[in-house]
Design goal:
This protein is mainly beta. It has 4 domains: 34 residues; 103 residues, Immunoglobulins (Immunoglobulin-like); 90 residues, Immunoglobulin-like (Sandwich), CATH 2.60.40; 184 residues, no CATH class. Helices cover 11% and strands 52% of the residues. The protein contains 4 helices and 36 strands. Strands 2, 4, 5, 8, 9 and 10 form a 6-stranded mixed β-sheet that branches. The protein starts with a helix and ends in a 6-residue tail after the last strand. About 6% of the residues have low confidence.
Length: 437
């Protein structure tokens, strides 16, 4: 009998343990439904808006919500249940669908928001927190605040522009060249957008866009346009232009016009110019008055490396193999004194072009302020055809491999040799802005 009583007690204890385990599992199962995570419904993470307000929505599955806080940019806003619709799902679970209209938003890169939640069940209070999301507020469109000077080295122009915007998505440098009849978009460069400078502290919303324009991708001598086109997440677009000059160079000596200034608005030196051109080993300035050359050579880098080249002057550039030259167009205007040049009598003069022209126009140049013509011959080397053309004003014809008319097209950036014979004195002043064809 005693053994039976002992066996009955053991069975009773086992039954109690089994029932306790079942109740614990059921309790844990119920408990888990009480603390389901908060679901942020909208807007999606990284959403961009042009409004100064935004509707925030979320949902919660819980037994009972006692308190909610909207954490917006680390500042808490108490959310009452009046902002929620409540639906009973089961006897132990409700769904809360909540929303809040956040107003008075300033332009900013990343407004943050999340939900803190207190729920209650039979065991007391439970605290839960949602994931964090971000919002970008961009109300003022997109602007190009600064198109910095190009940095040119080895026939490639690096650009850097500053954009005023809070959601910049694309920055293009669209290269437009003149094919002789129209401006054509020959290629685009997709710029790299580099961070928001000072945005967190000052709401600055500034980004830089950088990239490089490789002269090897260009085709047509003369003026070209870089059209910067910037677009933000809301589809706002803005554009601005910067102009330059491009030329083909043949292996050996090339006579060109130098129409560029450095980043400080000063004339470039011969050393600087050579560094800007791929395969350059020498730059030589023609001193027309002295009938001589001043030459910088990379093999003797300390000699003539500081010779300044006035905008519009002709220089000879030596490249060890075929190359390209690209630079900003700082062509003198009608109000600039550098539009004037001097031609010397009884000698060949190197003459840089600052506008499109042709050989017949060049040898018909007159002394500034007069109708007196004094150039009898003009000569030019065409890199593309590898032909020299020497034209006489007296015949209106040019000799190359064959007899040719003298209206051979020249581009800004080209340079020619001219011979003067009939100057009243030792030299004549000319206005180079009057040579356009």
């Amino acid at each position: 009998m005693a053994s039976n009583r002992l066996l009955g007690a053991k069975m009773k204890n086992k039954l109690i343990i089994i029932l306790s385990c079942i109740m614990l599992v059921l309790a844990l199962s119920v408990y888990s439904t009480f603390i389901d995570p908060i679901v942020l419904q909208g807007p999606p993470d990284g959403n961009v808006t042009s409004n100064s307000w935004i509707q925030l929505n979320w949902s919660v599955l819980s037994f009972n919500v006692s308190h909610m806080l909207l954490d917006f940019n680390s500042t808490n806003v108490s959310i009452g249940l009046g902002n929620c619709s409540i639906q009973n799902i089961t006897s132990t679970e409700r769904q809360y669908r909540c929303g809040y209209n956040m107003t008075g938003l300033s332009e900013y890169i990343n407004h943050s928001w999340l939900i803190h939640l207190n729920t209650t069940d039979r065991d007391g209070k439970i605290f839960n927190t949602s994931d964090k999301r971000y919002i970008v507020v961009d109300t003022s469109g997109i602007s190009i605040d600064n198109a910095y000077n190009w940095t040119i080295a080895d026939s490639s122009a690096s650009f850097n522009i500053q954009i005023g915007d809070y959601s910049t998505r694309q920055c293009l440098a669209e290269v437009l060249e003149n094919n002789g009849t129209a401006w054509v978009n020959t290629f685009d460069v997709t710029g790299t957008i580099e961070g928001y400078t000072g945005a967190a502290a000052s709401y600055g919303g500034k980004v830089n866009c950088t990239g490089s324009i490789d002269a090897s991708l260009m085709t047509y001598d003369g003026d070209f346009i870089v059209q910067y086109s910037v677009t933000d997440a809301l589809g706002n677009n803005n554009k601005t232009n910067k102009t330059g000059l491009y030329l083909d160079l043949a292996s050996g000596w090339n006579l060109i016009s130098w129409n560029d200034l450095n980043a400080s608005g000063e004339n470039h030196t011969t050393l600087e110019i050579c560094d800007m051109i791929e395969y350059c080993t020498q730059v030589s300035w023609r001193n027309n008055s002295g009938d001589s050359f001043v030459t910088y050579d990379t093999t003797t880098p300390g000699v003539n490396n500081g010779t300044y080249i006035t905008v519009g002057d002709a220089i000879e550039v030596y490249v060890s193999q075929a190359s390209k030259v690209i630079y900003k167009d700082e062509t003198p205007t009608e109000s600039s004194v550098t539009r004037f040049g001097r031609i010397y009598n009884q000698t060949w003069n190197a003459l840089g072009l600052i506008t499109d022209s042709n050989l017949s126009t060049v040898y018909s140049i007159t002394e500034n302020g007069t109708t007196h013509q004094f150039i009898t011959r003009a000569a030019w080397y065409d890199v593309d055809s590898e032909l020299w053309y020497t034209c006489r004003r007296s015949t209106g014809r040019c000799t190359g491999t064959s007899d040719a008319p003298s209206n051979i097209t020249l581009k800004a950036g080209h340079a020619v040799w001219v011979y003067a014979e009939n100057i009243n004195g030792t030299n004549a002043v000319i206005n180079r802005t009057e040579w356009s064809s």
